Amino acid sequence: MKKMIIGNWKMYKTTSDINIFKSEFEMAIDSANINVEYGIAVPSIYLCKVVDIFRNNKNIKIYAQDAHYKEEGAYTGNISYKQLLDCNVYGSIIGHSERRAMFNDTDEEINKKVLALSRNDLSTILCVGETLLEYQNKISVSIVINQLKKALNSVMDNDVKNVIIAYEPVWAIGTGIVPKPEEVDLIIKEIRKTISELYNPKFGNSIKVLYGGSVNAKNINDFLKLNSISGFLVGSASLKGSDFAELLELGGKDA
Ligand code: PGA
């Protein structure tokens, strides 16, 4: 199966940066051999614009970084899953650790968001991951599996096909520090085992499970060697069009 690489722009970029990204990216992929599924998660204010400027590239999937579970309502500052559909956005990241830590996204809210998005055929990149303290206390597996089970509560077989899991240890995000590939392998296998138990073994094998946290062109190959991994969620290395294109090229090669 093709690997998947999703860039997460977080709260970076303005209109001119986006235009520069587009031209650098297109120039770089023109001469590259891209053999991965890919997308970018962009700040909500630019979603419609980015969908529009990439309308001629059917391969790039445009994601939001969060979405509300209600169709509409008095939720100042939020965007709803219905608004994503209206703008032809492909899906959204849900439960990123920055949202959990800084915007109080609880497991219950994350579950409501996963339910709303997946039911409405929006691709849902569900992030799970332990903090440094939890890692040091050697409870990563139980933390991650607990987040996973809570987020998938009541998500039906028919809808879970829209869910992609991103394992992102909080201590690896934006730090330049990465876990050992075998540590990532262990967690991804536990995630697949849990999905097999909650749904079925076939789906446990086939669900996309990404790794995220300080992935770049120098270390991607170490993780590509893992059979368990389906791809990557990438922050800082997705900000420059040429860097992102390089990652996509590397991600499509056999490790
Ligand atoms: P990073 O971010 O690649 O900059 O560590 C990853 C993420 O937050 O998804």
Task: Name the helicity range.
Answer: 40-55%
Order of helices and strands: EHEHEHEHHEHHHEHHEHEH
Bound molecules: 2-phosphoglycolic acid
Beta strand count: 8
Strand content: 5-15%
What's the CATH architecture? Alpha-Beta Barrel
Please state the overall shape, judged from the principal axes of the Cα atoms.
globular
Q: What is the CATH topology? A: TIM Barrel
Any low-confidence stretches, pLDDT <50, length ≥5?
none
Q: CATH homologous superfamily, by name? A: Aldolase class I
Mean pLDDT: 97
Q: How is the biggest beta sheet arranged?
A: 8 strands, parallel, barrel
Strand arrangement, largest sheet? 1-2-3-4-5-6-7-8
How does the helix and strand content classify structurally? Answer: alpha/beta
The first-level CATH class is given as Alpha Beta
Alpha-carbon distance between the two ends? 14 Å
Computed CA radius of gyration, to the nearest angstrom: 17 Å
How many separate helices?
Answer: 12
Domain unit count: 1
